[in-house]
Structure formats: structure tokens, C-alpha cells
Amino acid sequence: MARYFKEQDIDEFRECFYLFARSGHIKSLDELTVIMRSLGLAPTISELAGYLKQKGGKMSFAEFLEVMHIHSRVENLPKEIVDAFKAGDSSNKGLISAKQLRHMLQNWGECLSSKEVDRIFREANITNNNMVKYEDFVKIACAPIPDYY
């Protein structure tokens, strides 16, 4: 699996894996769920159950890397988010008002606090009166967090 991931990524996966799977194996759906979601992926419960079932209900780190590779090819979160914005964009202009975006971030899904939204808007250089190009916003919002934070 080293050919699919950078060494730094494998180190991060290993650290997270052994933090939650202390025995050296994932033995439950809960462990697999926590590990994959901690690494920024959003697999469904049925996907997770399928991965665990394929591995006979128990998964080593090497098998986990294989699952990470398979799932990372399936999941493309930025594209999914942009597609969701496009579905709600009746004018097909690629824009959403900052006010509407703030409302969505604070009231839909995993609701963010106003401070969290303020921080995101500051990072993306958005003011409350702006129209926001949602494709640009998604690129910023889905970018990895730099190590120096």
C-alpha cells in the first residue's frame, strides 16, 4: 500500500490506527468508524460494515491501509459538496450569498457555531455582504489544515 500513499500519510494512519485499535487489530464497527472519521473520511455505516465483513470481522493495519486506499478512491468530498451547491443553484451562476452560506453552515448537518463560521469566512476572505463562488469556497474549506497551526 506504500505505493498509494505518502510516507507521511501512512504514519498518520498508523498513529490513528493504534490509538483506537490498541490490540493491533480493528475488531468492531465502532473502532473502524472512529478511525476512518478521525482521518477525515466520511464512509457510511453500510460501507464500513462491508469493509469489516470482507476482512472477516478483524482487520490488521496492512488490511486497514487497503481499505483506506479503496475508500479514498470512492470518496471525493469536494466534488460531492460542489454538486450539492450546483443542485441548489437555479441560476447556474456558481454563486451563493454569504448570508445564505452562513445560515447553511450554522443550521444544516454538523452545525457550526457563529465563531467557527467567522473563522472560516476570515480564512476565505468572505464578508457578510459578499456573493461567494462556491467552488472556490469548497477548495478553501476542504484544504488540509497546515501542520503549523
Number of helices: 8
Uncertain residue segments: none
Calculate the terminal CA-CA distance, rounded to whole Å. 29 Å
Mean pLDDT: 88
The neighbouring-strand order within the major sheet is 1-2
Explained architecture:
The chain has a two-stranded antiparallel sheet with strand order 1-2. It has 149 residues and is mostly helical. The chain is built from eight helices and two strands. The protein has helices spanning 7-20, 29-38, 45-54, 61-74, 77-87, 98-107, 114-123, 134-141; strands at 95-97, 131-133.
Keywords:
mainly alpha, 149 residues, two-stranded antiparallel ribbon
Secondary-structure map:
Elements: H1 7-20, H2 29-38, H3 45-54, H4 61-74, H5 77-87, E1 95-97, H6 98-107, H7 114-123, E2 131-133, H8 134-141
Antiparallel strand pairs: 1-2
Task: Summarize this entry quickly.
This protein has 149 residues and is mainly alpha-helical. Helix content is 58%, strand content 4%.
